[in-house]
Amino acid sequence: MLPQQENYPLARRLAVEGLLRSNLQERATRCGASYERGRDGEGMVGFRYLGRELRVSFPQGTIVTQNGQAPIPLREEILIFHYLERASGVPLAERWASFSEIPGGAFYHPVFLTRCKSPLMKFFGEEPENLLSVAEELRGEPLNLGDVGVRIQAFPFVPLALVLWRGDAEFAAEGSVLFDASVSEFLPVEDMVILAETVVWKLIKAGHRL
User: Which of 61, 86, 111 is the last residue of a domain?
Assistant: First the structure.
């Protein structure tokens, strides 16, 4: 579980220490990343996170973004380390699942609705077409689901689908954030909430620039 903000530095340190006790090359393979080992013994894991190319160096656990992009916030750093720790490398199920369908998701579903679905609907529900424009910020691609759908590759093995249905005189607008059914092999359920929340708010931030 991701910690409260005051415990972020400790959580980050523990995650890095856990990874250092593992086989980093094997970890990289299981999470769809590249691995390089320097002459000084430093390990370098590289992969894409929300459209950004990252390199994570060990033993320090330093996350470096490419092309002068802004640093990764500490909360997202912990999420990245948790992905590296948990990723099993199983193939994608190629089937979308709602959060409540994921093992453990029913327990956290009220939190998921409040922190992920509600902001998505509040901002994009009246103008769902805007979701397509802002999704480009995260290298999102159109998806043939709902009235407006986008697929966003959060991690190499963790895609998300954001889907909106337009409202009319009879029905209110509706929306959903979906995961590949294999997501439990790559993230704990608590981290799925954090990831979906992060994606939604990055899109909302981009939407304010329209």
Answer: 86
Range of the domain at 61: 5-86
pTM of the model: 0.93
Q: Is 36 helix (H, G, I), strand (E, B) or coil?
A: strand
**Residue 184, amino acid:** S
**Segment 135-147 mean pLDDT:** 95
Q: Are residues 15 and 76 in the same domain?
A: yes
The reply to whether 100 falls in a domain is yes
91 found inside a domain? no
Within a domain: 64: yes
What is the count of structural domains for the chain? Answer: 2
4-17 average pLDDT score: 85
Q: How far apart are CA 96 and CA 93, in angstroms?
A: 8
- List the alpha helices (DSSP H) in the chain: 8-20, 24-30, 74-86, 105-112, 118-124, 129-135, 189-207
Identity of the residue numbered 135:
A
Contacting residues for 175 by C-beta, under 8 A, at least 6 apart:
117, 120, 121, 124, 125, 128, 146, 162, 163, 164, 165
pLDDT bucket at 6, cuts 50 / 70 / 90: low
Inter-residue contact 163 to 143 (CB < 8 Å): yes
